[in-house]
Every structure is written in structure tokens, then in C-alpha cells.
Amino acid sequence: MKKSNIAMLCFMLLSNVLFAQQNIDFANYNTLEKVSAFFNDKSNKSDFAYGYYKTYEKGFWNGIPVENVVLRESSIEFSTPSTLTNSTKKISEFLIKNYKEDVVINKDYYETKYKINTEGITLTFDVDIDENEQISEDTKANMVIVFKEIIDNPLAKISSKIKTNPNGTDYFLDLDFFQVTPKVFLNGIPIYQNIAKSRYINDDNIYLNRYILNSKNPITLKLIIEPGNDEDGKPYKTILKNSYIKTILESNNSNGTNSKKRTIYDNQQYVTDTIVENGKTRYSSYPGTYNYGKKNLEFEFTFIPQVDYEVTGWSNGKDLRKEKDLEQKIKKFYADFGDLIINKDINKITELLYDKYFEFYTANYNSGEKKSYDDYESWLITIDRSFKTTLANETKLYISDDGKLAYLEPLDKSTNLKAVGRDYIKDIDFLFYIDEKTNQLKIIR
Question: So which residues are the signal peptide here (predicted)?
Fold first, then answer.
């Protein structure tokens, strides 16, 4: 081979290497369309390519040096090793500055996670520090950005419309119970039931904001506590001596101005058995209750919440106590909703669900990791995977204390409506009201 040809070959190889390792700022590819186009661009030379992914040893993200970049048709992943001084810190600062309230930070013993879920991306930034550490100049991290198709649907866009409030007050009812079955009612509507089996201590957490309309109307919580079940699933006849339940009403917000805990019911005590064996007496003490032997226990507690929002909910609803055949109307609604699932009518489904989700994301201040576009995707999966639906036949109708909200409790099934597919089941239950102006039965929770 002539020297001129060898020189030309070396020049071409060197050009390819230099091009493959050029300083690409991957933040320029910030939508699904841009990432897909860049990935499929044949002139885009990478350090390594294998079908569905390409890799780059080095690059940038918003001007910040990164390494080990993996590009796919709908995602970008990269790391900031300890050798890239302050890269992790700069990315952390960039996320907080530019995404503000959309950033959810979860700290645990092993790592700190930054999560961002918007209409167009799902971003996870895993930082190699525990809950007590601060990011230093050599802290390592890994980022994954998944790009999503922008969905033109009103329900999907709810979270994009509602302003996030990270300091909004949330209300929870915390339950800690052993060998009892608690049922919780809120203003006359059952919102929770769980069976405590033998040898298991149960704890649960009920998010109350979904049922709170404003800071004006009182909320009454009623607990009906029944005996738990034995190992064969049969309920005990009475409350056992070694059973108990503790309930705490908790309000909290991030700045602590309305963060409180109040025990509203607690029958846990140390109970004592007197045991006589062979003429000798001994005593055995353990957690339980001196309320044992009763068929059930009841307790009520009323409070006025202090929340940072106001929603309409069912306040403009008719008095359902005067409504004829309400139970049958709700059953028909579930049957018709099941038909919409089988007919894959996503637009009608999301139209019926819009108020429910709009008020939910208002009540939780649009501040959680989950957003309305995730709910839309979930319903798309439901209509795609379901090939039949089943309905509860035996039901019991509950109407709220103010007469405006209705719930149909299924007695022969776990939910009123199930969407069923291969290796797939979606449980569906709603709360309803009847609009006073239109006389329509509507989903509201």
C-alpha cells in the first residue's frame, strides 16, 4: 500500500474516532421526537452501537460533564463518577432550580433519589449518599431520563394545569391493630376495612384529603371495631383479650406549620392473666385490651380540617335520600362503564373520570410522584388488556350524612366492577353524586 493511501486511511479512522467522541450535550435532545431522531440519525457516530442502544464514553448534560452515556430511542442514561469533580452537585442544583416543585427527593439509608415526572419525561437521579450525607465534589450518581409521548387528552393534562404546592397540609388516619377487623366511616361513607389475622400486627395509613372539600365543613370519623379472624378465616365471636387498636389523626406539611399528631382512639393496654398450676400462682402480662368479650366497639371523632385548597366535590348534589332506585342506577352505571372498557372508548372513560382526578390532584397539591398522565396510561392499559368485566350482584347502599354522596358496597365480590384480562385484573369502585342542575349520576371519587 502506498504511503499516501496509508496516510489517508489513518486520517479517516482518526476522524471517525474524533467524531464519535465529540462533546455532545445530550440536554439538546429533550423530547421524545428529538431523542428518536438523533438515535436513528446514521451520521450520529457513537463509541459503540448494538441495535437498540448506542454508547458514548463522554459527553455533557446542560454543560455539565458526564460519562458512560447510553442512548436509546426513547431514553438517555449517564453517570457522574467521582473523577468528574462537582458534576453530581451541579446536576442536583440544576434540577432544583429548573424543575422546582416537580422534584421529589427521597432519602434512605443507602442512597438519595431525585424523581421528576412531567408530561414529557420521567427522570430519576440516583445519588450515592445516605440520608445524613451532603453531596460533595466527588459524589457519584446515575441518571435515567425516559421520554414520553405528549398526550392530547384532558385527563392526561390535569397535572400540567394544577400548580404544585409543596407546603400544602395533608391529613392521614394511621391505624395500628392486632386481631381485630376495623371499619372506618367518614361522614357516613365506608372508606376502609381490613381483616387482621392471628399472629399478625397490622398497620395502615388512610389518605383523607381525597374526602375533604375545604376548611369549612367538619369531618366525622367513625370506627366500628369487630373481632378478627382465626387461622381458618372465621371471625371470632367476641373481641379477644390480646387484641387492640390504636388510631392517630395526623396532619403534616413540609414547613411544619400544621404538622400535628393526635391519638383519637387507643385501647391498647398491658393486660394480665392469673395462672394457677400445681398450687402455684403466676402472672402473665402482654399487650391487649380490657374491652375484650364484646361483640364490637365503636368510636366517633369530629374535626375541622385546615387544608390549602377548596374543591366543589358533591356540594352541588341532590339529596340522595329522596332518590328512587338509586342502587339500581349505580349498578347500571357500573355495567355501562364496563361496556366502555370492552369497547375501548378511552375518550368517554376519561370524560367520566375527569372531575374525580382533577379534584384528587388539587387535594394532594399535585405534589406526589404519580401524575394524571400516569392515570391515563393506566386506563389505556386497562382497555388494551381486558377482554371481559364482572359485576357485583349483592350490594349495600351507603349515603353520606349530608345526603349528597353515595357508595355501593359490594358484598359478594371485592369490588363493584372488575376488568379482567390474561394475567390482569383491575378493581374499580367509585363514589357518586347526582348533579342538581343536570340530574346526572356522576363519578366524583
Answer: 1-20
Largest CA distance in the chain: 112
Same domain? 295 vs 335 = no
* Integer Cα distance of 150 and 340 in angstroms: 24
Which of 211, 249, 243, 210 has the alpha carbon at shortest distance from 226? 243
**Rounded distance between C-alpha atoms, residue 115 and residue 124, angstroms:** 5
CB 265 within 8 A of CB 289: no
pLDDT of residue 15: 44
Q: What is the mean pLDDT of residues 320-330?
A: 97
Q: Of the candidates 280, 283, 282, 194, which has an alpha carbon nearest to the alpha carbon of residue 245?
A: 194
SS (H, E, C) 68-132: EEEEECCEEEEEECCCCCCHHHHHHHHHHHHHHHHEEEEECCCCEEEEEECCCEEEEEEECCCCC
For the chain, what is the total number of helices (H) and then of strands (E)? Answer: 7, 25
Look at residues 248, 278, 303 and tell me which one is the last residue of a structural domain: 303
Do 299 and 274 belong together in one domain?
yes
Among 174, 245, 184, 164, which Cα is nearest to 207's? 174
Q: Domain span at residue 297?
A: 170-303
Q: Please state, in angstroms and rounded to a whole number, the distance separating the CA atoms of residues 151 and 19.
A: 36
Contacts of 249 (CB under 8 A, 6+ apart): 171, 172, 173, 174, 221, 261, 262, 264, 301, 303
Q: What is the pLDDT of residues 85-115, one digit of tens each?
A: 999 999 999 999 999 888 999 998 889 999 9
Residues 299, 233 share a domain: yes
* Closest C-alpha to 106, from 368, 362, 363: 368
Q: Report pTM.
A: 0.85
Give the CA radius of gyration of the chain: 29
Model pLDDT, residue 343: 98
Answer for the pair 128, 146: CB distance below 8 angstroms, yes or no.
no
Long-range contacts of 17-25 (CB under 8 A, 24+ apart): 19/45, 20/45, 20/46, 20/47, 20/56, 21/47, 21/56, 21/57, 21/58, 23/58, 23/59, 23/60, 24/56, 24/59, 24/60, 24/69, 25/59, 25/60, 25/61, 25/62, 25/63
Same structural domain for residues 329 and 273? no
Say how many domains are in the chain.
Answer: 3
Residues 405, 410, 416, 422: is their CA dihedral positive or negative? Answer: positive
Residue 30 belongs to a domain: yes
- 131 pLDDT band, cuts 50/70/90, is confident
pLDDT recorded at residue 196: 65
